[in-house]
């Protein structure tokens, strides 16, 4: 059974109510659980009842993180290759209906971006490609990935959903990680925010992580865009999706990100705000749910928030991010996908981490064999 079929058996309102119905006793039981925690434990930990337990939740999350990951924080940076898009999404500045200047980097521009990032110390890069299969598809990746591979030991991609064969080819070209966010697991809300293009196909996108796993990609990133609808129910769906993937594609590593909806050109209003306290609760709940899980906080979040959350459970930070193609080699252009909140330089982020006793690591795992 696919995860799509599994999720179809769930009722959104029932899941939502189950979280709201969790008691303080459920929270205490989840906190005291020995061994692997269940989805029901996770529901208790993100419930309103768990708000009163945020301090012990955070302390336990920090202990588990240090035990598994030591005092390290891995740093990465996004490299935007294009802002072309064949979809119309209500929350994204790159949507096809937004009248912005479009840009796709050529080989010389990609190389200039790589050189600029290497000068900042990065050895791990996240390629963000936009979603335009015809103009920024496999033919483009076959040209650009060999160039990028010369500069970085670890390449991750945030790319439009592809076939299993295409993911396998990306792997052969040096891609070690693929991130695909479902945006929301609520199919009705999903339809309201995806108005044109292939991204309208909820099922195709929800089945994407399985195709990535079948292709043997080393690390798979999951997550929902927090703010489109009830964040607790979307997070329960993410947790269930993670468990499904770990059971069926156990050779892969997994990461979860927590993107909160940010202002952008033509952007939609936040329907269900996630405040800072709730985001900490969610981050720590995922750590207790899975001690091996990599947890990422991006520059969407403020420097103040990231500095205070750094020791609680996160394992990966982006730093110095520009969300427009060519933004590192050419500081003048401004074609942002969304605005960032933490605008410190990578060096400033690294220094802030060191002041908290963390060791910034500028690379991800490097594959010795493939």
UniProtKB/TrEMBL annotation:
Keywords: 4Fe-4S, Iron, Iron-sulfur, Metal-binding, S-adenosyl-L-methionine
Lineage, uppermost ranks: Bacteria, Pseudomonadati, Pseudomonadota, Gammaproteobacteria, Alteromonadales
NCBIfam families for the chain: thiH (TIGR02351)
GO BP annotations listed: thiamine biosynthetic process
Cofactor: [4Fe-4S] cluster
One Pfam family here: BATS
InterPro entries, per the entry: Aldolase_TIM (IPR013785), BATS_dom (IPR010722), rSAM (IPR007197), rSAM_sf (IPR058240), ThiH (IPR012726), ThiH/NoCL/HydG-like (IPR034428)
Protein name: 2-iminoacetate synthase ThiH
Radical SAM core domain location: 71-306
CDD domains according to UniProt: Radical_SAM
Domain of life: Bacteria
An MF annotation (GO) of this entry: iron ion binding
Gene symbol of the encoding locus: thiH
Signal peptide: none
Keyword Iron in record: yes
Keyword presence, Cell cycle: no
UniProt organism field: Aliidiomarina minuta
